[in-house]
Amino acid sequence: MTDLSARILSGDPRAIARLITLVENESADAIPTMKHIYAHTGRAHVIGVTGVMGSGKSSLIYELAVVYRAEGKKVGIIAIDPTSPFSGGALLGDRIRMMELSTDSGVFIRSMGTRGMMGGLTGALYDAVDILDAAGMDIILIETVGVGQDEVDIVKIADTTLVVLVPGLGDSVQTIKAGLMEIADIFVVNKADTPGVEQTVAELEAMLDLATAQTRAIPIVATSAKQRQGISLLKQRITEHSEFLKQSKQFETRRRQRYEAELVEIIKKRLLAFIFDEATLRDTVDRCITQISNKQLDPYSAADEILGRILK
Amino acid sequence: MVKKIRVLVAKPGLDGHDRGAKIVARALRDAGMEVVYTGLHQTAEQIVNTAIQEDVDVVGLSLLSGAHLTLFVDVARLLKEKDIHDVLIVGGGIIPQDDVPTLKKAGIAEVFGPGTPVDEIVSFIKKNVKR
Ligand SMILES: Nc1nc2c(ncn2[C@@H]2O[C@H](COP(=O)(O)OP(=O)(O)O)[C@@H](O)[C@H]2O)c(=O)[nH]1
Ligand SMILES: [Mg+2]
After folding, report:
1. Which residue's CA is the closest to the ligand 1 atom numbered 19?
2. Of A52, B15, B82, B111, which one is least surrounded by beta carbons within 10 A?
């Protein structure tokens, strides 16, 4: 057992923070500790919160965290913002809505940049969730980027996915991308203190009525993070969803999906590192590229050759 | 390994606006850093806990209201009390030259007055991060 593992398992915030940095930096130093703590993961309920920018995701996460804290639950929060593809930098501003929680020792908040990962997540997200889980968080809330609206990957990691909408979104809820509609375990219509809530809820209901092949009615919860309305009800719906998952065996199915996605992610990274970083194959790769440029080789044959070297 | 410099830009105290802090935050992002921004009215304790959870390399404090002597020094002291020595602390805002030596002695590595070109701040950080 590494010293860092023991500190993670005891919930030491500095250890948690440092290990998340190591996984974000794809440092090999993280791996022994990740292996050690793994047996202690899988307990936390992971909640994904997605929806357009400005819909109130950060504010809702803050309010939910307050409700969970009142029950004595420990809460981990991961807030993702986009990394600039030009500079590689990122402005991570979700904490602005959560500062009241930063002196509560039962809450750990981490802001992360996407660092080139598509789908509104970050490559280190699986690890970060495992770390918070092993450190004893009961609830882990993940805020996705919220720009592209194509953030369906969150379902690969979340047990419960909340899709946050606001009243008067353009002309109707029809404008929301189909993919985002399908991933919702719960719809949240936030900013219910502003005009048009009833209409948005009604449109959503109508749309859900049309949707077929549902094993479960998707609840719609109107909230106002600003006025602290509907938050307890939202929490209750989340708990009900968690119970539904466990009774219907979907919990196991979802977790298997998550572990598969995590495994694929790790293998992809290692394979790419093996091909492009290691001294052994780098020469072959460079030679193939030269031959491709000279039109002596096509990229498919080059891929055959490189993969052949690994698979032999 | 893809190490990025992580910076916390925080505004302690009672200042009413954060235009300057936001300009600096954007400039640091454009220089490839990950910048955690916390908004207005932070206590020293909130800033230090945030710095820990976010595992930042740099804490940048900005203040216009004249309370820098206590607030900046509080942040530096709290970090030291928690045995954190690998975080670079820098300050900015309206700060009289006479106060700079006191701040430096307290552990603020550099103080940037209004109108400091952001490039200067970027290169200071790049040169002085401790890990
Ligand atoms: N009127 C109203 N404004 C809200 C509500 N929830 C959040 N906001 C505001 O909406 C803006 C965006 O909120 P934020 O939580 O940052 O949204 P995010 O981008 O989805 O994380 C902020 O100015 C919030 O104060 C709400 O329930 N009602
Ligand atoms: Mg947000």
Report:
1. A54
2. B82
